[in-house]
Predict the structure.
Amino acid sequence: MTLLDGLRSDKHSEQLQSATEITRILSEGMQGNITFAAADLIQSGVVDRFIGLIRDEEFPRLQCEAARGLTVIAAFKPDLLVYCNAGPFLVKLLASSRYYVREQAMWALGNLAGHSIHRDYVLKSGVLRPLLSQLYEDTNLSVLRIATRTLSNLCYGMLPPTFTRHPSPVVLSPVLRTIGIIVTVNNHQSQVVIDCGALHILGDLLTRAYERYIKADTFLTISRITTGFTEQLQAVIDANLIPRFVYLAQNNELDLKKEGVWAISNVTAGGSHDQIIYLVQQGCIKPLCDLLVCPDVRIILVCLDGLENILNVGEANIGEVNDYCQLVEDAQGLEKIQNLRQHGSYEIYAKALKILETFWHDE
């Protein structure tokens, strides 16, 4: 029985054995070791047969092996997969309950998308939403790694703001969450996003009449970038995002106010003295004081941290009189900080007491 006969067998064991051997031959042949054998297999219609096998949901191991064969072909002969319209069938595998099937399908789609002339074909096959669904925090690390690679191939050579300019919230929301995951990894990943020009696009989203959850996702993404180093914070400032933080932190629903003060506090924690002075000039003290009466303990601590960082800069940069203390008083912040000495949280009490003793010596 030939290998192709094995693929056409009614027995799953024979199909799997033949698929495994064919994939090995293809892998070696595509790399120039057994060119004629690989060429013969391709000409014999093995791609169509592999597509048929990945549709067999009763045997996940066979689906995986057939997808592995398509992965090899996608890397070296992608036109064949497009001609046979393998894309939609590989995309369907992303819904498999077996992680190893999803992994192999993503490898194949990533290899196909890696050829820029076929990237749009992969997108039109419906890959984006099921691919983004693989990027949740509880995802298997291996799945997350391959999904990120595939997403990278889909974005290669494409202006990153393309998706963030899409008018539909159905597209914007998962894209924003994906960018948020990327910038959470490390400062290098954040810099890649900044270098792509994403900050100006994200800032633009804050000014549009999108639903609250789109603005919240946008705020969260930018807030994560503000945890970076000084140069990245400067990029946020240069994109004119600080005034938008301040505005939204004073003029929106509570959850958006929280995201706003969190971003402001992040900048005070990692910013230079000049950057913090700029924050004060943009009016950031008032929203930090406003949320000192928030029921969320974490937010109160974030606001106290931000105010303490600002007051420290006032002590160092302004001279004998800390003018920032007066700005806090003008925003009714002093009274609120004094009241926090009665708060049920010891951490809040201790932080408030420290600020009062440090900057209002006899209060």
Notes: The radius of gyration is 28 Å.
